[in-house]
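Predict both folds.
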Amino acid sequence: MRISTFAIVLLTGLIALPPMAGAENPRRVISVTGQGIIVAVPDAAEISAGVASTGATAIAALADNTRRMTVVVEGLKALGVGEHELRTSDFSVSPVYQRQTRDNNEQPAIVGYRVGNIVHIRLRDARDVGRVLDRLVDLGANSISSVQFTVSDRYERLQTALASAVRNARERAVLMAEAAGATLGPVIEIRESSAPSPRPVFALQARAESADVPVAAGEETLQVTVQATFALE
């Protein structure tokens, strides 16, 4: 049987084809972690405070709470806290149970009601915290759950930390590549993998006579972490 010259050439060409370049020379990469850290002094604050009242009936407890809470809110406004800086964060009405005898098998009976009203206060100046806490107690607030110091330009600072994290990743990649005798190539992938930094929360300290409540804002660490992959040449 005769085989054409064209078929022989085609068969020879197929056999002579080299393997894929990628199989012989897989792409070399390096993956690193970069961090950007900024330490900031909080310049603003948030306070959760309010009034808890009890009464023989729900209506009585609510009336007492409303009267006392009105005094607190109006007093805060007189202190310079704006309406847009006040927000009700929690309001509750719940029964108060009590056993009538010492018998543990007895079902507790409702002996009254408790009403709670908590307002969230935002202060643009953290230096006002002590003065506001002192005034809250004077106004009759008997429930102060937290004082939280914050950084007002948090977003802008986190953006700065992000850029710093990317630079840090490249610097680490260059150092590792040079140590391995290679040259750093272009970036292939960058992913942010940071978690929100916790904000400092401080409990109310004992009130000092004729002085603002002592509080300390401390510092807040804002951290951003990125994962970056670069090519090696």
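Second protein follows, with its predicted structure tokens after the sequence.
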Amino acid sequence: MKNINTIIFDMDGVVVDGMPYHIQSWKEALSTIDMSVSDLEIYLMEGMTGRETMDVFVSKSNRSLSDETAEKVIKLKRKIFNEIFTVTLMKGIKDFLFELKDRRYNLALVTGTRLEVVKKVLQVGLDGIFKVIVTGESVNNGKPDPEPYEKAVEELGARKEDCIVIENAPAGITSAKSAGLTCFAVQTSLPEEYLKDADRIFRDIDDVSKFLLK
């Protein structure tokens, strides 16, 4: 890939295997208001902020919830998540990140997750890897809005044509493409049919690594 010097990573399902914990904590929190959602529905919301995810769940359920109740559920979801979340890096990601760093690529992380969770992830030997980190709190509009990726490119001082985004969820792919970026998708959470808007689809991180670093 000529001229590519910047790789922007989504976090859950790309860098860290966080989705099982998000699924469990959403399900438990929503059960307190007798609302149930499927694993697939949660996977499809991946990358969005807690508030945006909650809004989608409520609108799909055809129920009206007060802001106060919605906020309570989101807080409970975060509390459960923080209690159960264990950092497990995705297979192949650490080697890939260090190899990119060695080859002087600029690296950024763009996630709908909050900074306190990102800090836990970085503690497993990824400190100082990412030049720029954009979290759920640092934007007004989360994925699928282009703002998170636009902010990363701006903070990196990069040119859009020199960047590749690595994503694994529809909201993130839409965000990256709307920001005018090339997006690679990995099938770590969802099958190919949900990732069709990406420029290229790979089975996993090792396949992306082989393609980019060959």
